[in-house]
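Worked example (supplementary).
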Amino acid sequence: MATVAPPLDNNHRPSSSSAAYDPTFVPDAVKTFVVHLYRHIRDNNVYEIHQMYDTSFHTLTDRLFKDTPWPSVDAVSIYVDNDHVFCLLYKEMWFRHLFARGSVGLKERIESWDNYCELFGVVLLGNVNIQLPNQWLWDMVDEFVYQFQSFCQFRAKLKGRSEHEIALLREFDKDFIENAAMQILKAWNVYGVLNFLQALVDKSMIIEILEREKQGLEQFTATDGYDYNGGSNVMKVLGYFSMVGLLRGHCLLGDYQTGLKCLRPIDNSQQGVYTSVIGSHIATIYHYGFANLMLRRYGDAIWEFNKILLYIFKTKQYHQKSAQYEQILKKNEQMYALLAICLSLCPQVKLVEETVNAQLREKYGEKMSRMQRYDDEAFALYDELFSYACPKFITPSAPDYDEPLVNYNQDTYRLQLKLFLYEVKQQQLLVGVRTFLKVFSSISLAKLAAYIEVDESTLRTILMTYKHKTHAADARGKIISNADIDFYIDDDIVHVVESKPSKRYGDYFLRQIVKMEGVINDLDAIKLD
Amino acid sequence: MVREVAENPPPAATAPDSYTVEQLVAINPYNPELLPELEKLVNEQVNSKTYNLDANLCLLRLYQFEPERMSTVIIARILVKALMAMPAPDFSLCLFLIPESVQMEEEFKTLIVLSHLLETAQFRQFWDEAAKNRHLLEVIPGFQQAIQSYAIHVLSLTYQKLPRTVLAEAVNIEGVALDKFIEHHVANSGWVLDKGHSKDQLIILPPTEFNHPELKKNAADNISLEHITKILPILG
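After joint prediction of all chains, the assembly is encoded as:
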């Protein structure tokens, strides 16, 4: 086995960390892998493709490519008839593996972007007529947004860089293309990324498909997005997942309203193609919940977090062997932290299922009671939980290379955190009031003011603040109360109203009916000898 | 380092002139060429007392992508319009997109203080502060009415019977003008004057589920038709 000297990039450094990497060498196992995968793709054998993609690829990676990249696409293409689309798909996996392994340089990032341009370009032209598993299609969109996020942070981290590296980055950004339309071609430019996702949504007509499905004129969710009429699922499903990609992208930029708008065609109160892949299910709900938290719709956030956390609790054992297990666990922990925040700001424990509540008490019970005191220690806890659980925000614009070298990649995060804590602090005024409202059924303003040690005028503003903060506008602009304790004022007497917990009987019965039907069907299917 | 142009660039929007800005935003919001049009739209919103949150967020995003094209005058206008949209959280939504360094400028610090006063229902302090900053606020037609509208919203959540002095402070109107104001709402918004009370004039606000808990419908148990259709095959 001859070892060829590793190829050098523009900086005359080896382009991979291991000196023994030979991109032209294709082990037999890889040869077999690509040949079979190529054949399964040509045969539209989605099940086999999924097995190879989800399992074999990772097994081979663990065995042969722990420290080196996979063989280059040029080396394997002869085994797959030099098929253009297959090569693009292989290259996408190749880069994904590279990014997962460790630090990636500017050159590789640009090359990966070029590959996505080509790959999505081919899809958008309608030239892809194969069927791929949803897992793969989701991973493509997810990775695309991830590499965008990674690039922004890479570019903004100026501190500690050598002069040479800074010069390269400056050169890269200086290459400013006048024509606005061409600007979107620049590697990982925010316009380009968002436009690609939007293009996939538009060209696939996924929004219209989902609309027609509601009217019973089309099947999409029922077939999990797969096409049983001889067509391809690739563009449709990429378009579908791109909506989740846009939600995520907008959250990373701090635009929660638009992010939720992008997700609107998907009804996240029900099953859908987004739930067919656990990664997509979690990503959707995590960002949906986070966006609602920032929009102060705590009730909605709590409801959705509760559902997904229960789902993960029940199903995580089935994913233990999967390559995404660690990610699932990480997101699970982050969502518990977000739930703790939401419940501290909006005590509505009745929205939370018992199992989830038990887990929550275990992880954050003590912290939550301290957070509800709204003192300095509480703010530190809010800071801690928010910082742990929030998305990795990005700065989409190029840094100022002339300014003293600092890291810009924390700017957006710091701003979001600051504004969030600002909102939390506004609730500090309500602490005293809440305690007393729990005790009295009616009390005069004068007496209550004396207890809280403020004057009557201040008390009135505090009570109005309480009302304002607990009555948020929902997605349709309707005002909804999420107060556990409510009241009204009659001239100068406060009358307290305890809200009765409303059990959602209807929901419960619906679920049990469907479950029962499932059990009966299963029983019917069993043949007794 | 010259980049090669990829063969298949993502489609950028080239809309015909007959589209309105709103339609352009709906078609493709990620288009740097929209920036001047969106700025014009902000000024239009100010002049015609209209409001378009989506278009304003789109503009703030474009400023985020290309900070050298940012206009603090336009941003200030967007923020005032957002204040006028309360109780919606639009002001915060806009702040999330404006870099911290820009928020440090005087006029933005003032607007943030004003927002804080409104969020915490400190209406007297708000009107005092607003009076000191007329140049920022009174250039936006409809500002006063919008804030008064928000004040009434919060009062209606909180009070069944509202003393006149509290109302006066919240909407910043006194004397004869306040009488006229109350008359207007008695005629149009279902307010009722409580004549029996001798100490201070009381206004009875229209009953809603927020200030009259017995009116609260137990909406939580409504089941939508969509969910019923799922089990119809089972029940049938």
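Two points are worth noting when inspecting this output. The first strand of chain A starts at residue 442 and ends at 444. The radius of gyration of chain A is 27 Å.
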